[in-house]
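Justification of resources, computational component.

The compute hours requested in this renewal are based largely on the per-chain cost of generating structure records like the one below. Each record pairs the submitted sequence with a full structure-token output. That output is archived, and it is also reused by downstream analysis tasks.
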Amino acid sequence: MGCNDKHSNSKNVGCVCDVVKFIDELQSACDDLTCTSSCLNPMLGMPSSGMRANTRVFSLYTEDGTLFEAEFLTTNCTRDSSEFFRVESVDDCCAVLRVLTLQDGSLGMCRFEKTDQCIIVDLNRFLAIACIEDTFIPGV
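The structure output for this chain reads:
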């Protein structure tokens, strides 16, 4: 699944869409084999917590190259933003993404947590995707 497989223009329209669709299929399968972190790994890797990964965390970059962020409300009703996402579903190139937060964990390790905020995005509007980490997120 290369970015240039189906697209002849220089913007690679659909590339981000193809990768997010792949991540959605991968998360649905939740294979328990260990693999290093990469957007196109054929299975979810084992996070350092030792629990089986159920999420491939990623960030998106807009057409002008800036990091895409989404706002969400915290538990104490203040506004915050995050650039980390989990794909919940994809239909064509329209995706529902759950906003994730990065929390300080024990022993100097970071961990991701889900928020109640989901956004709907047109994946054709993004230039790049960066996969951050395969992890286990409770309740997703």
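The mean pLDDT is 81. The chain has one domain: 15-135.
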